[in-house]
Write a structure and sequence with these properties.
Length: 396
């Protein structure tokens, strides 16, 4: 059964407690996720978004338990990605002529995915759809995070249906932000922002300012993943504005991989040096072959600086570090400092290669880095601690 949100709005989505990865394996979802779909019943009835394809039959069956499908007058697709549109083919088999409201890019993408010429009605920012006492207003939000993305605002209940924006990959039966674990919600929200939205930060600021300028009253933000922001919904909007402006905390993150522990010993000595020079800074050490890549990216997002380490093998750095840096480069972090380190045996080009990766990814590399031949002894570890101390100053 659905869950009633207001007299007119019912949640009809799917909570996916088992989901552990998303976008193939590009995004870890340790706390599961949900695909939120909403039914609005006024004089006319509208369905906002659907669920991921593996749950299509379950979704349509549960929708049938809620309503006669033929009484759905409009389907609104805020975003074509298959976690929200995946149940459309199953649904459209039942109600093939129902109009689907989406952006023009949305219609193109839905046709590209499902190869059906459904009854698309394309909308632009400011277009409205009257349902009775209430009306929906559409707001295009291109590249937040796909070209087709849009928000739908419902007056009367004053709800913003924001799709991916302000969402979290977080499974909960509680539905509302004030009933779920706040620290977990924010961990998942910042992870989502860091891993998906960082490259679009300028657009995030512009879109939020545009929506705020409408002066619309806001009682709830109904996202398409995770909780509904009901208690002080503006808190997540303000947090997004904060995250979108080259966000950083007083944190330095040391990310490394190691073959025989020499680079690990260097990482630990650098951490000691940073802490000795600045007891206020948070220092975190993450091993790229043991820690989750998306969690590492979240820590990079929070950091004012990173220190990247790898030994050298066959004239290259380790693949865990090079793979991570491919992802980091695409995210276009801004305003972050960096340095490199690593052990070597003979060719020794690791630090030079690491510096190149860091510069390519837009980091401000603050020095030439530091290397250690074979295994660092006590004298060398002392020099590496000094290196950490200077880093704390350079990254202050
Ligand atoms: Fe939740 Fe971009 O899909």
């Amino acid at each position: 059964m659905g869950k009633k949100i207001t007299d007119k709005v019912t949640w009809v989505g799917k909570v996916d407690w088992e989901l552990k990865s998303f976008h193939g394996h590009e995004y870890s979802t340790w706390r599961g996720s949900s695909y939120n779909s909403y039914l609005i019943r006024d004089e006319k009835t509208a369905l906002i978004d659907t669920v991921w394809q593996p749950y299509d039959k379950e979704f349509v069956q549960r929708l049938k338990n809620e309503i006669d499908l033929n009484s759905i007058d409009y389907i609104i697709i805020n975003h074509s990605e298959i976690d929200h549109s995946g149940a459309l083919p199953e649904l459209m088999r039942e109600i093939p002529n129902t109009p689907i409201y989406c952006t023009s890019n949305g219609a193109k993408i839905l046709k590209g995915h499902y190869h059906n010429d459904w009854n698309f009605v394309t909308v632009k920012t400011g277009d409205t759809l009257k349902l009775g006492e209430t009306a929906l207003t559409f707001i295009e939000a291109p590249m937040l995070h796909w070209p087709d993305s849009m928000f739908t605002y419902m007056n009367g209940d004053n709800i913003l249906f924001s799709n991916d924006a302000f969402g979290q990959h977080y499974a909960t039966e509680s539905l509302y932000n004030d009933l779920a674990d706040t620290s977990e919600i924010y961990e998942e929200a910042i992870k989502y922002y860091a891993n998906i939205l960082t490259p679009f930060s300028k657009l995030v600021v512009r879109k939020i300012e545009e929506v705020l300028a409408f002066g619309l009253p806001l009682s709830m933000i109904c996202t398409s993943h995770g909780v509904i922001w009901k208690n002080n919904p503006v808190q997540i909007v303000e947090q997004y504005l904060n995250w979108a402006k080259d966000y950083k905390e007083n944190q330095i993150t040391i990310i490394y991989d190691t073959m025989w522990n020499s680079t690990r010993k260097m990482a630990e000595a650098i951490a000691c040096g940073i802490e000795e020079a600045d007891a206020q800074v948070t220092v975190k050490l993450l091993n790229a072959s043991k820690d989750d890549k998306n969690d590492i990216i979240t820590q990079i997002f929070k950091s004012k600086g990173i220190v990247l380490g790898s030994p050298v093998v066959n004239n290259e750095i380790l693949h865990s570090i090079s793979g991570l840096m491919e992802m980091v480069k695409g995210l276009k972090f801004k305003g972050k400092k960096a340095a490199a380190f690593g052990s070597y045996g003979w060719s020794g080009e690791n630090v030079k290669l690491l510096n190149g990766k860091l510069k390519d990814a837009g980091f401000d590399v603050v020095n030439d880095g530091i290397r250690s031949l074979w295994v660092p002894d006590e004298d060398e570890l002392s020099k590496i601690r000094d290196f950490g101390r200077t880093l704390a100053e350079k990254m202050a």
